[in-house]
Fold:
Amino acid sequence: MITLITLSVHIFQIFLALLVAPFLMGLIHVVQARLQGQRGASILQPYFDIRKWLVKEAFQPMTASWIFLLAPYLLVATLLLGIWLTPLVAIAPPAEFGGDAIMLVYLYLFGTLFLVLAGFESRSHLAILSTGRRLVVFALSSSVLLTSILALALRTGTSDLAGIASYVHANPLIVADPSYLLTMTACVLAMLAEIGGGPLENRRSSSALALIQEAVVREYTGLYLALIRLAEALRLFLFIGLFCSLFLPWGAATDLQLVSLFWGGLILVLKLLVFVVALAIFEMFTTTLHLRHTGLFAGVGFILALLAMIASCFSI
Structure:
């Protein structure tokens, strides 16, 4: 049963995500610009861009239907719901949060599915090509992520997000467990693939790849484009926050006292900043690999996740 205080924690997580997520995107751009010896845009540029698009008039392709218009809303809504269900600030009892890890993956799948359908709705050749590419990457990364979560659920004895976080928090020596390390590595590969950074692709390295990557997004204008850009920032926030919650829950509030929640939120923001800076540096110094290499990394991640499941079954 959700009490008033746990409801407040959920609302605080949503507010924190909306406030911090665009800042994380701006931080990535600033770090990469500095590494290239450039000044770059302001770290607050994502906020300015979203505000600019909110006041611009929105257009849509003549061939688009209600699916094209609904997709940005559903994408943002599913990501916010995922943030609502994930114990980011506090590790509360599972009955109070009720977020299941497997359900979270399928919830994200639901929002992504509508964005894929919107790409086909536009009838643009580049958008259709981008949609196919997105489907391939998502199919590979989601399978690895789902297998990693199943391996972690076998190790901890539950698929509940708060239950997994509580188990890892109460057993810090799990970091030396082989199944835990294999699961963490596989999950990192899956998340790097899905959020568009890391070894699978450097989007700024090839104008052709960047054009394909952004083809669906460029079909939107005005409010719809603002929602898409906000969804990209929320996706980054959710994936890094989920990783910290499942594998590095130390620092999150173990009770629902106001002071504990404040420190839990502050430590969460610090974790996000560290991971985002590391992601930006890693992406800059990683050799560019095109789409044909995606299967290789996804295959490695999937094998690691399967090995983690076997190790968890035999309690290695």
